[in-house]
């Protein structure tokens, strides 16, 4: 066992070195070839046509990364940005929008494919919509605060903190996957010893005393409560509950509208608002306050809904949250921190929230599907902003969008078949851990290259209303 672990570590170390060397070599090739073709006026990067070796390498690397990421529902922005910078030669300012367009394509494919899937332990949608609507408002609010911190924090501090965060996150996620794997192995062993007898005995014990003699309904539950429970179960069976989708859509419209009202970059504010003015900060405060207000409203709804569930005899399963006055405050605050990290480091919220959900005890398939829905909202919001501000090189964006759709669909199909064949949900956790680990390596190389470049130092303004706003 010790020899196998040492061998695995040695192989992992060699793989990391190989990835780093290949990325740096391709990056140098990309920078050399930029002068050999016509360039885009906005980004300063060569146009897609004619396609060269660095383009092909970038597309292949992005597709492989997305196949891995698809199984865990993570967008993979932490891998894509370094690939587009180091392999394809884009400046970080324009690599991030391209990464977002790729992630958007993957998120659409993820959500579309997850819509058909059901919860592994209950007759309900795979996505935990209650968790989603509670997490998303404060994640967006945290990203807003983190974005401001990113403008004033030194490049070296951001790079070091990012690599440390990703390393710690990947380590905890992989450990979580190993625990789940061991738990599954123990369960398979127990089932092999007394599969049918033990399963029947447990079910009879769990339901003993809960069912009456003739109707199969919980004792003491009157018609009104049965009707309320039926409405809850009917809503949970829907792939897209209308009220929760409306809340998320409202946040999307609110965020996009306020971002456009503030203006930035090549897109001036239609109301004449300039960065740093009283109007600018008032609008920013209003956006932050609106997101917090939505979060508080969702909190009150979930507490009341949980009380109704308890009164109706709702059957909770493994991975479900019991929302009360404590948990509806604690978990959103953790999500706010995740949003701050996403905004500060310029990475997607999924790479933080996916492992966070696993840490909180959410089942891996549910965590992956819920994270994918969250990414769809955030990536659509960001894509709208990037397109409006003219930061997207469209010839690459169109191609990479479909790379995101195709690679994510392939990754989803492979992971679905793997989980179905083996019965191991821990592979989803391993997928998330692999993406975060790869992001750690690639973002680390990206940071080193950026710090070594005098040009990248000049681009950082060191102020909220510096260049690029």
UniProtKB/TrEMBL annotation:
Subcellular location as annotated: Membrane
Keywords annotated in UniProt: Membrane, Transmembrane, Transmembrane helix
Pfam families membership: TauE (PF01925)
Entries under InterPro entries matching the protein: TM_pro_TauE-like (IPR002781)
Transmembrane regions listed in the UniProt entry: 56-87, 126-146, 152-169, 245-261, 281-302, 331-354, 366-392, 427-451
UniProt membrane topology term: Multi-pass membrane protein
Alphabetical GO biological process terms: protein ubiquitination
PANTHER family named in the record: CEREBLON, SULFITE EXPORTER TAUE_SAFE FAMILY PROTEIN 5-RELATED
Protein name: Uncharacterized protein
Naturally occurring in which organism (per UniProt): Pelagomonas calceolata
């Amino acid at each position: 066992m010790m020899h196998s672990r040492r061998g695995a570590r040695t192989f992992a170390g060699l793989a990391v070195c190989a990835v780093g060397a290949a990325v740096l070599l391709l990056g140098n090739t990309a920078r050399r070839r930029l002068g050999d073709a016509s360039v885009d006026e906005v980004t300063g990067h060569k146009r897609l046509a004619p396609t060269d070796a660095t383009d092909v390498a970038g597309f292949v690397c992005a597709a492989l990364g997305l196949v891995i990421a698809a199984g865990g529902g993570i967008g993979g922005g932490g891998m894509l940005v370094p690939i587009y910078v180091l392999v394809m030669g884009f400046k970080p300012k324009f690599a991030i929008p391209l990464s977002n367009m790729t992630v958007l394509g993957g998120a659409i494919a993820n959500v579309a494919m997850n819509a058909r899937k059901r919860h592994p332990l209950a007759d309900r949608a795979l996505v935990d919509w209650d968790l989603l609507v509670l997490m998303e408002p404060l994640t967006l609010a945290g990203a807003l605060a983190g974005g401001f911190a990113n403008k004033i924090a030194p490049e070296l501090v951001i790079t070091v903190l990012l690599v440390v965060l990703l390393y710690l996150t990947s380590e905890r996620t992989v450990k979580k996957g190993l625990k789940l794997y061991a738990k599954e192995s123990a369960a398979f062993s127990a089932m092999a010893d007394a599969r049918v007898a033990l399963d029947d005995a447990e079910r009879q014990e769990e339901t003993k005393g809960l069912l009456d003699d003739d109707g199969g309904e919980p004792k003491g539950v009157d018609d009104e409560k049965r009707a309320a429970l039926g409405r809850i179960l009917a809503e949970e069976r829907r792939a897209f509950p209308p009220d929760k989708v409306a809340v998320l859509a409202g946040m999307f419209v609110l965020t996009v509208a306020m971002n456009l009202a503030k203006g930035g970059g090549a897109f001036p504010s239609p109301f004449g608002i300039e960065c740093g003015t009283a109007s600018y900060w008032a609008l920013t405060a209003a956006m932050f306050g609106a997101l917090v207000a939505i979060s508080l409203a969702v909190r009150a709804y979930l507490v009341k809904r949980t009380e109704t569930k308890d009164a109706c005899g709702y059957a909770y399963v493994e991975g479900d949250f019991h929302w009360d006055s404590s948990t509806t405050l604690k978990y959103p605050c953790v999500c706010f921190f995740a949003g701050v990290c996403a905004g500060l480091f310029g990475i997607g919220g999924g790479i933080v929230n996916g492992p966070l959900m696993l840490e909180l005890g959410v089942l891996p398939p549910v965590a992956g599907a819920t994270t994918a829905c969250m990414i769809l909202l955030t990536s659509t919001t960001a894509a709208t902003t990037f397109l409006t501000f003219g930061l997207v090189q469209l010839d690459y964006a169109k191609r990479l969008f479909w790379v995101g759709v195709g690679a994510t669909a392939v990754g989803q199909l492979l992971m679905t078949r793997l989980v179905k064949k083996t019965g191991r949900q821990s592979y989803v956790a391993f997928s998330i851990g692999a993406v975060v680990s790869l992001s750690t390596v690639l973002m680390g190389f990206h940071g080193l290259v950026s710090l070594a470049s005098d040009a990248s130092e000049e681009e950082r303004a060191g102020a909220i209303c510096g260049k690029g706003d």
